[in-house]
Amino acid sequence: MKRLPVLVLILTLAGCTNFPELEGSESRAVKTAPFPKLLPLPNVLGAPADPVSEASAVEQDLTARSEALAKKAEALQNAQVN
């Protein structure tokens, strides 16, 4: 709790900082450059994923991993310790 007032003071003082003006610092090429073309979002993202087939693939992967871990656990339980 003692640090909270100090933190508030530091953040308040940081809000009073003078930031340098950026107006006029751009080069002529930047000022005259054309605005970039906007692309439709569906074209950028591609086809939507099918959640049913994706879930099926994840389920198969998890089942295979589970079976592999069960076999590994069984082998460790049946291993003889010297």
Folded structure, characterized:
With 82 residues, the protein is an all-alpha fold. The protein contains four helices and no strands. The protein has helices spanning 3-15, 28-32, 41-45, 51-78. It is flat, with a radius of gyration of 30 Å. The model has no long low-confidence stretch (mean pLDDT 88).
What are the salient characteristics of this protein?
single chain, mainly alpha, 82 residues, 62% helix
Q: Provide the low-confidence segments as ranges.
A: none
CA-based shape: flat
The tally of strands reads 0
Strand fraction: under 5%
Order of helices and strands: HHHH
* Separation, N- and C-terminal Cα atoms: 58 Å
Helix content: 55-70%
Whole-number radius of gyration? 30 Å
Outline the biggest β-sheet. none
Nearest-integer average pLDDT? 88
Structural class: mainly alpha
In DSSP terms, counting alpha (H) and pi (I) runs of 4 or more, how many helices? 4
